[in-house]
From TrEMBL:
A Pfam family hit: NAD_binding_11
This protein's record includes keyword Chaperone: no
6-phosphogluconate dehydrogenase NADP-binding domain: residues covered: 4-159
Name of this protein: 3-hydroxyisobutyrate dehydrogenase
GO terms of molecular function: NAD binding; NADP binding; oxidoreductase activity, acting on the CH-OH group of donors, NAD or NADP as acceptor
The organism's place on the tree of life at top rank: Bacteria
Residue span, 3-hydroxyisobutyrate dehydrogenase-like NAD-binding domain: 166-291
This protein's UniProt keywords: NAD, Oxidoreductase
Active-site annotation: 171
Family, as annotated: Belongs to the HIBADH-related family.
Coiled coil: none
Protein source organism: Micrococcus luteus
Amino acid sequence: MTRFAWIGLGNMGAPMAGNLVASGHPVRGYDLSDAAREDARKVGVDVVGSIAEAVADADVVVTMLPKGQHVRDVLSQDGGVFSNARPGTLIMDSSTVDIETSRWCHEEAPKHGVRFVDAPVSGGTSGAAAATLAFMIGGSEADVAEALEHVKPMSGKAFAAGGPTAGIAAKIANNMMLFITQMAASEGSQLAKHLGLDPKTFWEITTASSGMSWSQQTWYPVAGVVPSAAANNNFEASFRADLAIKDVTLAVDAGKAAGLHLEAASLAQEQLHRLRDEGLGDKDCTLVVKYVTPGKSQAEI
């Protein structure tokens, strides 16, 4: 039995922490949101009133937060993780953050007597609920090996990505590919539909052919084809467009820093910005399909 603290009990954090509880591990959790705290209680998390209380007796602290600055604040603020975790505690950050934030975490943790791995995930809210997430873990060899054991109740696959920041580097590149393939699923699905193909039949064809991708399998943007797709629910968010902007921007910025021309990623970024600019940032990122069929309502897509 491992004692976990969990900071960030949102759409991903609560079900992930719940899977740890279901596997017999006690989890103390903290979040600013009343709704998030209530959801976490429903899956067995012991929700407490402060970060300090959550981490006081923990063997492992997991952070799952929206932005890099949130991670820095939660770790370093008065009453935060660094000042309250026991010596030797392993901190696992499963947030999607910039490389510099992750590097800062790796550098700062030893100064406070604790250990750190970057441990982002892929698989979305459905993977979080089903305990089928893919973890990409970066850090020292020993800490990564330990983290691989800790994530088993939450994961379908877990990878030792390499040294410090290797996990988040893999996540940034992977998410970039996700948003690019989502554009392909958007355009392909609408082209097939307008050429007279039955959407379900075409989806089955692509599943057995070279058009298959994770986004095509899980987020297919036509209602009535894939049960997990937001298209079935008026594009209510499983992955909000405004959060997708953050992720694809991390990739575009990393590419610029490396001297790369990421033109497809830049187009995905542009389409997601259009959603936000139209007041649709709280909708699912797969609503970019609307730009394939201008003039149609969401119900007509």
